[in-house]
Amino acid sequence: MTDAEAFEMDALWADFHRAVNMTSQELAAWLRVSGAGEEAERLPDRAGPAQGRGVLAILRKRQMDLTESDIDLMREVVDTVNSERAAGPREDRPEPDWRYQLMSLGHDPLRAG
Question: Bridge-partner residues for 90, per DSSP?
Fold first, then answer.
């Protein structure tokens, strides 16, 4: 990895951890609640949307252990959180749906400063 690539990775890592303001324990609990149902109760590690499970997996990793798909998801999450925060709740995505979507990515907008 070149110095430029390392710098870019460090910046993405920081951006991701700013966007994802829930702990891994909080996100895991939220995914179980939001995905509650018969299937989720049999397979609690598969509760919630795939993106949320991916964020949870990244939170449990060290930066040096990230895969290319982790890096792609991190970029996607940062972009989604930033654009959704800018747009806010709206007619097609009212509160609390807007908040719940963000929480499924590990971002609680009520916690953001």
Answer: 93
Phi, psi of 90 (to 5 degrees): -150, 180
Q: How many residues does the chain have?
A: 113
- Residue pLDDT tens, the chain, 113 long: 799 999 999 999 999 999 999 999 999 999 998 765 555 455 556 668 899 999 999 999 999 999 999 999 999 999 999 999 999 999 999 999 999 999 999 999 999 55
Spatial CA neighbour of 31 closest among 47, 54, 13: 47
Residue whose structure tokens are 């971002």: 107
pTM of the model as a whole: 0.88
